[in-house]
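ligand=pyridoxal-5'-phosphate
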Amino acid sequence: MKNIDRSLLQASVMPDVNGYFGEYGGRFVPPMLEPLMQEIAEAYEQIKDDPVFIEELQYLQKHYTGRPSPLFHAKNLSNKLGGAQIFLKREDLNHTGAHKINHCLGEALLAKKMGKKKIIAETGAGQHGVALATAAALVGLDCDIYMGEVDIAKEHPNVVRMGILGARVIPATHGLKTLKEAVDAAFEAYLKDPVNQLYAIGSVVGPHPFPMMVRDFQSIVGREAKEQMLEMEGKLPDNLIACVGGGSNSIGLFSPFLEDLDVNIYGVEPAGTSFKTGDHAATLTLGKPGMIHGFKCYLLQDENGEPAAVNTVASGLDYPGVGPQHSYLKDIKRVTYESITDHEAIEAFFELSRTEGIIPALESAHAVAYAVKLAPKLGKEKTILVNLSGRGDKDVDYVVEKYGKEYGL
Ligand SMILES: *Cc1c(COP(=O)(O)O)cnc(C)c1O
């Protein structure tokens, strides 16, 4: 049982009025954006307890996304490892194949209620872009997705998907032409017409209220998991594990358990190929407090204090910052942050595919890999609940091309 001051714990659950979790978060935006962010915060405060909004969102979660997602006891894998029992929260079975649809539906509905005509966002590998384009098509909003020219060339299937869904993919052509430039381009476009557009951020990052809002929309994952675990096992899980990029799927799972101090919680970051700057994205493990995209958090920085280059086999985890709530949860030691290498993630990708017939996203494979390490150290009566944030269909070509030989392909 962990011993954590209740008042520290309280501050880990809700940000203060200015959007701070401890010293992290806040809203560092150009003066022109300040009233717009305030407007979004106020609109969100209004709708989040509105029964009509809640009912509409619940209807879509059930009949469109396919919630609740199942909780699956991975007996083959558990038996093979010979320790704790592993349970998988199957976010990979959601419509569009990952957890991102949870907050995209929320953000699209919010945009609609605010009278916006268009929803815009940046995307790196295209996962957030596809989920948002999907929600925009459903809710009836125009959708512009900003994407680096380099990523557009690399992520062809997702670019095509967004087009089919009716979204416009707009290339960011300056600088390195990847995710950071896409964010710059999207912000610029947002500033040109903030009245008709809503910028839908893709994780629990960015200026207040986004980290709180995206967290709230993702918390359905943890609420369902808690209920399902109680139903299946009659007790809470002993351990939770989720991968951490910006931190949305993980905080979604963790949130409803933060005050259950008997539950050990692990966030798993990508250690990439080495701990040299540029070879990983292990922000909470190796970063220092800093500023990125309008908020304060742990940040991987170069010599000049600028966001450092990052790299991991799972492009969805490729972010030098991390959500402010995670930054605070690390400091108060409520969540333990670990890291997993590219190699370990690939091992876990094949292990889960071949023991359970489930191909995980490479991002989720990081969480599975940590479960594979932890389970044998624990007794058979213990349980580990892993958030399987997405499915691996998007990764199969890349994995086979790069690692196929080692696995007989
Ligand atoms: C985007 C993505 C992630 C990482 O984002 P978080 O905000 O940290 O959850 C993890 N898993 C999958 C499948 C993703 O698409």
